[in-house]
Automatic annotation (TrEMBL):
Entry annotated with the keyword DNA-binding: yes
Molecular function in Gene Ontology: DNA binding
Protein name stated in the entry: HxlR family transcriptional regulator
Keyword Plastid found: no
Keywords associated with the record: DNA-binding, Transcription, Transcription regulation
Tree of life domain: Bacteria
Any Pfam family the entry gives: HxlR
Domain HTH hxlR-type as annotated: residue spans: 16-114
Length: 129
């Protein structure tokens, strides 16, 4: 068996830090928000409907993070009552290809993933007991 080379401190390319990625694994709502905006601009209240379970605070934070990363724009209209719409940018739309690939992978491997999780949980319960 071949022993792999040790990992070095410069293993990851500094020009591509993971914190610069617009869609992070821990931000579970980002992809769902983007899918909601795929057909066109939406208001905050419209986004809450399909995103059952998201709190207004988390939705606002997620929208701000996506706006900060250039994935969407926020347009406030000078009306009474005030109206705000969120819309994907071309940069945001460019993420649909990678998102579709990740979703296809998940569909293809979901059974294996769930089986691995179940086996891990059963193994963990046996070793904890």
């Amino acid at each position: 068996m071949t022993v792999p080379q040790p990992l070095t401190a410069d293993f990851f390319d500094p020009a591509c830090p993971s914190r610069a990625l617009p869609i992070r694994g821990g931000e579970k709502w980002s992809w769902k928000i983007m899918r909601c905006l795929e057909a066109g601009p939406r208001r905050f209240s419209e986004l809450k409907v399909p995103l059952r379970g998201i709190t207004p605070k988390v939705l606002a934070e997620s929208l701000r993070a996506l706006e900060r990363d250039g994935v969407l724009t926020r347009t406030a209209y000078d009306e009474n009552p005030p109206r705000v719409e969120y819309e994907l940018t071309p940069l945001g739309r460019s993420l649909f290809g990678p998102m579709d690939a990740a979703c296809a992978w998940a569909r293809e491997h979901l059974d294996h993933l769930l089986a691995a999780r179940e086996a891990y949980e059963q193994s963990s319960e046996r070793s904890d007991g």
